[in-house]
Amino acid sequence: MSSTKSFAKKYSDIQTSSSFEFFKGVGQVTGGTLLSMTMVGSSVLAGGLVGLAISFRDLPDVRQLRTFFPSETSYIYDIKGKLLSSIHGEANREVVTLDHISPNLKRAVLASEDSHFYDHHGINPVGIGRAALVNWVAGGVREGGSTITMQLVKNIFLSQKRAFTRKIAEAVLAIRLEQVMSKDHILEMYLNQVYWGHNNYGVQTAARTYFKKSAENLTLGESAMMAGLIQAPEEFSPFVSMKLAKQKQKEVLGRMLELDWISQQEYNDALNEEIKLGKIKSFQGSALPYITNTVAQELIQKFGRQALLTDGMRVQTTVDAKFQMMAEETIKKWHKTLEAEGLKNNQMALVAIDPRTHFVKALVGGVDSKTSEFNRATQAQRQPGSSFKPFVYYTAFASGKFTPDTTVLDSPVSYRDGNGWYYPHNYDNTFTFMGAIPIRTALAQSRNVPAVKIGKAVGMNKVIETCRTLGINSPMVPVSSLPLGAIGVTPLEMASAYATFANYGWQSPPTVIARVTDSSGNVLLDNTPKPQLVLNPWASATTLDVMQTVVKEGTGRGADIGRPVAGKTGTTSSEKDIWFIGTVPQLTTAVWVGRDNNGQLAHDATGGGMVTPIWRDFMQKALKDVPIENFQPPSKFSRPKSN
């Protein structure tokens, strides 16, 4: 008989021979007598089950399986489709349709588990009779006699405890299920539901784990080995014992040959086929944990934790894996450099954002994700120091009363706040002053008194309003020290705020997620940028213009990369936090250095001296093939009228 003939059409040819297979090795009773006894007993049992079905009214309603969706693993990919991580609860599963499962595997599973699947109506009386006789001879439960339909309802609705009442419930539910669902649908659900070992549920995740391929591409040899796993997955796993796995494979192939579903040649070829194993990866960590953890938190906020663990999301991030790895390597390199220079126990964070889309392009939450999962880029709220000042000067420019040439006195001043008198001084704790200077110079040289005076002039509440518009949500009070960065912010917040300046006031919510679909391709979340104008364009362009002076001739000279850069250094009192946030038209990057215990880094640690070289190193790599662009001059935009 041709091996290519459909196995489903052969059932009428194999039923008689199958009956004799059921009773091999049972005892010394003659075959004819045994068959008669079994058929009579099976008929009585089958009739009894129909009667019992009436009394099992408290069993689950199998009709709900028509809309049942099993828990499914969510997958996170980079912007180019590279898999970064899989996230799941108890069940690691990827659901596939029946037509995307290899015919080899379907035949192997049916031969091993239920060769009469397409003939019975949920239960197989002959199989039940055989199991009953085998168990009676053995003096205990040795064989179940369950059909695939019975196994499916057991896996979904019932406990795994072996008991007669549970077997009756299985049979009743199986009969009911076959009345409301097609055979193909039941088989598809079973293959996606069954446990294959090593926390792999369903054929697709199992095929990828065991053989590094999709379920639709499994060979006959691989399919027979997988089918042999169902009864005891960890015991017969080829990862545990290839010898036992091959033994089960041979049994499955032998059954397929006996049923005439494969030829002798196919049997021989499958047995001799070289099996190339994959890797147990269900419990592997993420390739880029800072990215995938940030993605997970964003998804939980949007959809809830349970949906992330069970709904089979397909998440495309905004990050290129190679670009992210370059950023992580840069941070590790400079961590070692600073350690060698005596800056021990330092931590770092880096966030790079495309200002045109507000898509996060790189996010590094520390020097080593393996030793610390704490994400300093998104979770550590640290004082920004003087890198906060551009928010003050933008507010002044947006009021229409100030320009970069407006003169401000850098001279002694004191203010009475709720906690007493406040005397602003400069970073070096000196009270030396420069006198009357333009705002451009005040920001370039990071003078503190002018920033406080301008903040007072425009109103601290207006400065706070600017920060809220830029997405900085940390608690703020309108005290005199606010312009010097006496609040807590995250590197992500700072990078996003500067990116809005770099896009001349146009803003989209910063995100690590570009798109989310379900496993069927239905779009759940589309983060295609929809920018809104939230800042005054002239004031934004003017702020960028002044921040270019910071890099050209001010405290940020270390960030010079041979192209237009706007940025600002930040150093807090006692040198606990040092920053540089800088931008070109195509990329905005924030770099922070500090200690987790909020201790002093070093007496001479500054953003201009220690952080700008890190920023410069990263940006030179990031912009290697990116053309040089100039910022648009403020003159292109209309200046706001004075209030």
Note down, in words, how this protein is organized.
Helix 14 runs antiparallel to helix 21 (607-622), helix 15 (389-398) crosses helix 18 and helix 15 crosses helix 20. 41% of the residues lie in helices and 13% in strands. The strands form 6 sheets. It has a 5-stranded mixed beta sheet. A 5-stranded antiparallel beta sheet has the order 8-7-19-18-17, sandwiched between helices. A hairpin with a 5-residue loop joins strand 14 (513-517) and strand 15 (523-526). The radius of gyration is 35 Å and the shape is elongated. The protein folds into 2 domains: 16-55 and 91-272, Penicillin binding protein transpeptidase fold, CATH 1.10.3810.10; 326-636, Beta-lactamase. With 643 residues, the protein is of the alpha+beta class.
Question: Which structural traits does this protein have?
Answer:
19 strands, elongated, Beta-lactamase, alpha+beta, disordered N terminus, 21 helices, Penicillin binding protein transpeptidase fold, single chain, five-stranded antiparallel sheet, 41% helix, five-stranded mixed sheet, 13% strand, 643 residues, 2 domains
Structural class: alpha+beta
CATH fold label of the largest domain: Beta-lactamase
Percent helix:
40-55%
Tell me the overall shape. elongated
Terminal CA distance: 93 Å
Tally of separate helices: 21
Compute the average pLDDT.
85
Number of domains: 2
Q: State Rg.
A: 35 Å
CATH architecture of the largest domain: 3-Layer(aba) Sandwich
Looking at this structure, what is the CATH superfamily of the largest domain? DD-peptidase/beta-lactamase superfamily
The oligomeric state is single chain
How are the strands of the largest sheet arranged? 2-1-6-14-15
> Which residues sit in consecutive blocks of at least 5 with pLDDT less than 50?
1-44, 51-55
The counted number of beta strands is 19
What is the C-level CATH assignment of the largest domain?
A: Alpha Beta
The major β-sheet equals: 5 strands, mixed
Quote the beta fraction: 5-15%
